[in-house]
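hey all, quick one before standup. I had two proteins in the batch that finished overnight and I want to keep them in one place so we stop losing track of which output belongs to which input. First protein below, input sequence then structure tokens straight from the run.
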Amino acid sequence: MATAKKNAVEQATTFFDKPKATVPAEKVMSQYQTLLAQRAELEAQIAAVREEEVANALEQIRQLVDEYDLHEEVQFTRARRGAPRGSGAGVARGPVAAKYRDPDSGATWSGRGKPPAWIAGKDRTQFLIG
């Protein structure tokens, strides 16, 4: 057992002590640029094939809708990315008018977010503004 361990240590030492082959920086960079170009080509091919397959799938779906007269049940619309229109998602909202006022300090609160200490846990109707 000790001999096997000793041989393994010697092999590892020999491996790490060997001089490493050096690759010129120009060659490494050109390999990198080549790989990036190959990736760009593959991504373009993937996008083209996906587009074609999606078009074929949609055509099959349309044929089935026609064949079974499902026009009322199935409506085709263009897909939208992100939040639906009119949802207000992603749109910065302006400040909101104050809804509550502390009669002692005159401090106000809009009713959004964490309630301030002067209104927390109390009946808010007594603090309503107008």
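OK second protein, same deal, sequence then tokens:
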Amino acid sequence: MFQRNSQPSHPAQGKPANGGPAFVPPAASAAAAPAAARGPLLPMVEISIQRLEEIVEQETWALKNRQAINLKDFNDRKSQALLELTRTLRNFQSVGTSPALVERVGSLKAKLAANQAMLKLHLEAVREISTSLADAIRHSESDGTYTQAISLAYRRS
């Protein structure tokens, strides 16, 4: 198995000598392997985190600003981005962590907490509205025949 070399083979041009990507055989020592693997994987993890952060920020902004949004669409997009991040992190686990990655994950965690709070507030508002509507419909459909009798029986006990 070969890994992409992030170092150009000709420093003046900034590209490999043949114009294509440079490949190097896997590192022979165990100490060199994590550094070589971290090179191409860390940007992939950061891109996945950034993509998920952008989706979460868009949804949070829309909820805060009371924009009409498709929650299913946002849920699908977040699920897809989370799946991508999970798959990328699986490859990254054997490599170890970096302080930059820990910071990015902490930032993502804070954004997810803010998003969760906004979704909770939104769902509570929807629940209150749906309860009010259900009560109004129930009241409008009732002719009062049983309502008064039930309330009098309740008062007597």
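Flagging for whoever picks this up: The chain has two domains: 1-30, 33-156. Helices lie at 32-64, 71-92, 99-141, 145-156.
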